[in-house]
Amino acid sequence: MTVETESLSEILDRGTIVTGLKVETKEEVFTKLATLLQERGYIESVDAFVAAIHEREGQGPTGIGGHVAIPHGRSSTVKRNAIAIAVLDHEIPWESLDDTGAKVVALFAVGADDEGSQKHLQLLSLFARKLAKDEVTQALLRAQSVDDVVAALSK
After folding, report:
1. Sorted alphabetically, which Pfam families does this protein's record hold (predicted)?
2. Where are the alpha helices (DSSP H) in the chain?
3. Which of 15, 47, 74, 132 is 20 to 30 A from 31, comparing alpha carbons?
């Protein structure tokens, strides 16, 4: 097992991964994933966290292309850093670098302190390296179950 795999497995929580999510808007994705994060004890407030996500969305596109988006929110409502992942049942509109919508959304919850931000940068870098592999992105886009998502990110 590589250090990269260990780091990823430490942060992935099967309880914050959902597949086949039926939504029409970014707002619905944010609310669903924030609710999962709250239920699993990563954030205190869905409303405060969604507000932090919107603040970040206002700074620029979070769609990285290839139908994948990596939104994030940095807030004091985050008790510990986490990632929530949604594989949507169809593509929805999303501002992106390649003008495609999103079908896979990896939402980062980041603590407001400096330590949280530093860990966030490390995780974002790790995910970016994973998602740069076409085989990983294609496997995520086809994922039908939580097991499929975990397997795709373990490649």
Report:
1. PTS_EIIA_2
2. 3-11, 26-39, 46-57, 114-131, 134-142, 146-153
3. 132
Residues 111 and 45: their CA atoms lie apart, in Å, by 13
CA dihedral 5, 11, 16, 19 (to 10 degrees): -20
- Percentage of the chain beyond pLDDT 70 is 94
Are residues 65 and 57 in contact, defined by beta-carbon separation less than 8 angstroms?
Answer: no
Separation CA 95–CA 97 (nearest Å): 7
Say which residue the tokens 């490390």 belong to: 122
Residue 108: phi and psi, rounded to 5, are -95, 130
Residues 6 or more apart whose CB falls under 8 angstroms from that of 132 comprise none
Question: Residue 79: exposed, middle, or buried by beta-carbon count in 10 A (0-12, 13-18, 19+)?
Answer: middle
